[in-house]
Protein 1
Amino acid sequence: MAFPFSLSFECILLLTLASLVFLIALIKLAGDDAKNLPPGRQGWPLVRENISFSAAPRHGLFHFLQPRISKYGKIFTTHLFGKRTVISADANFNKWVLQNEGKLFKAKFPKAFSEVFGKYGMLSIHGDLQRKLHGVAINLLGQDKLKAHFLAEVESMIRTRVHQWVGREILLQNELRTMVLELMVKQLLDIDPSEEVKVMAKEFRDFTSSGIGCLPIRFPGTRFYRALKAREALVARVKKEIKEREEHSEVSRPDLLSRLLKEDSRLPEEVIVDFILFLAHAGHHTSSRVMVFAVKHLTEDPAALQKLREENDAIAKKREGGKLTWEDYKSMQFTRWVVSETLRLDGASMLVREALEDVSANNYVVPKGTSIILAIDGVHKDKDNYISPLAFNPWRWQSLDLKEKPLMDAIFTPFGGGARLCPGAQLAQLEVSIFLHYLVTNCRWEKVKEDQAMRFPTPLFIHGFPVRVYPRET
Ligand code: HEM
């Protein structure tokens, strides 16, 4: 009797191949199990995990972490987007991973990220080049530069902008992004605030908001395509600046680009372009986000706003309309607590690394090639680390400020750690503090409508946080 259906040779070959791949994967997973992975959902890629993780934009990474931490502990294994992933909300483990950057682990980002930020975007480069550019960034943003240079620039730009808002209804998130981008563009490329910088701000919004975390589908109409177009425009703009500087090398310009071009061992043009674009992005996107989230918290916490006003009114009275000094800035203690508390609640959610070899830690083995998500959000909202961790409470820093540095270096890491510790951390804190100083001493504000925050991959208000700004005395 003949079979009711017949299989072609290609079908049989395909089925045999598929079974082989399945078997190899099973053997590999069994082998990895024998390696004592952290507990969790091991096995085939789990669709449910991907769906829950993808819901993080609405609820935040913490929402994804909580039930899994209760079940498996602070370090657990899962499969995300077809890849075995170890997620850690363990402060000491995270600190140790960050300290072993380039040795046992390396920074790892999705393909879309490296295409949008370029081959030489800071987080895509490793080894000597990363160390060199990290050094250049530290040099540009060190405390001496902040005192001698940034303090006055930041103050003047923020003072002008805050006064322009009075009496108007504004989308605070967009205003802050443009304001901080203007500051970065001035420092990096010596371009003054102008309509052109506003256009660049829009391009940066497309460049990053559209491109990060989306599927790399290079097709007109997709978010990724829009991001690549924005990248093209920005690359062309930086290259134009390089050409102009080369043609007029006798004119000295006070910006980072000129310094990079004058170096004895000059970096290749494409490295310079990606470095400048990364700094411009990293330097405005994050600080402006902390500013808008600080305002959100203060809007909802009149006692904290009152205390912040008292501190800053006293400083404003002392300076009698003059410029803020470094000592004034250093004396803003409660302001610093507000900034730290906002960074704790609304800073970076996670950092991603990959194991460069089989790594043993905490009685587990993390196999080579495994993705590791360092869940900063999980550490910052862990009740073992902070009392009532979900509450906005700047006063908690009164006692936290006194805690030992190694402990704080592990449980408070809004700027990462190790070889990739954010070189802009001090500038960011300065910018947010001066912004709060001018805002609370000159204005009051009210929300125009409720706005919802997306929490992940970076916290962001859907409608741009619309507020109406009034002069302070009314
Ligand atoms: C509140 C504001 C900011 C936050 C929360 C923040 C956070 C971070 C974090 C968590 C990292 C580490 C990424 C990783 O290890 O995977 C990082 C790296 C970096 N940040 Fe920031 N950042 C801020 C502001 C800035 C500013 C103002 C600049 C520059 C003007 C800057 C420049 C950089 C650069 C260049 C890196 C890459 C360092 C490297 O890989 O060597 N950041 N930032």
Protein 2
Amino acid sequence: MTVQNHSQNMRTQALVVEKAGSPFVLQEILLDEVRNDEVLVEMKYSGLCHTDIVAQHGLMPVGGFPAVLGHEGAGVIRMVGKSVKNKSLEKGKLVLLSFNSCQKCSSCVSGLPGNCPSSTEINFAGTRKSDGSHPAKLLDGTGARGQFFGQSSFSKLAVVHENSVVPCDVSEESLAMMAPLGCGYQTGAGTVLNVLKPTPTTRLAVFGMGAVGCAALLAAKSLGVTHIIAVDILPGKLEFARSLGATETINTGDVDDICAAFAAIGGVEHIIETTGISKLIAQGIKALSHAGKMALVGVPRPDMPIDIDPLNFLMSTKTLVGVIEGQCNPPETLPQLIQLYQQGHFPIDKLGKVYDVQNIEQALEDLKAGTVIKPILSWNSISDTQQ
Ligand SMILES: [Zn+2]
Ligand SMILES: [Zn+2]
């Protein structure tokens, strides 16, 4: 592929959401210049995450429209800004893209960028923090939300912030299945490995067997956890969870209260909650053992308050912890997870399904129907940049 004009206004194709609730439409956009702390990435694949759909519908507190979303990119570096700090980021290098962070606050400096207080603004605003400029524009010059999670990877070419770029030593063929590591998979696996830290005898439950839940299950299995309880409402997903290593399942459609269901199988000590369903969260807290721990990953709906019994909570030493991006530091976590995959202990290839980017509507439909765990969009059918 040829990128002739590096300086400004490169044309490329991207999925654009015109306004809140509009569909993803593949169209030409203009990219702004690649600045000193940025990298031009040619996308090969981009995972489709639930947060993209939430943002598409304008349900995030920050960020305008039109918008180029996508935050599980995987591709190849085409150009590197002059002062990019990571010297292993070179032209031609395969990379995974992850979330952005300020790299200045105490959380970022201590290697916990998921806890960065500027995280929401940096990842959702879609303009450069330095001067509010737009890394992406429509052909008529209207500024679009770009660098969503530092990347806006629903684009054949993207101007990505250096903090979002992680080099990875994998073959181009395996890159597709790696793309969701940058958000969904690291969120699930990181919550287990970095936050809950179960031992082999811990009774661990996963609420919601989507991509995050399945990655959490695989991570727990990699630690040798012997009781992994999958909780979902779709029988197909529970069956799939069993094939991944779940030892017990609870179908929330079959029980009135999951507390009784947990009691019947010996209780639960760790829960990773990915559904955001208030009723499930409340019942899960109740079901936890005396010193149990629940990690909240799914965002509860603001209009559905969580009904917590304070006495049940106070008379125990239960812990409830909110987790962002699995408390991961992508430059460290992603290579670790890739290694785990290569050793056969984190078989994420069972979770992903590749769709041509032009079939995004099908991917969204399958995700909604629960017939696919993680749709991954391929950019390989989209032609070279036009100048
Ligand atoms: Zn920070
Ligand atoms: Zn995500």
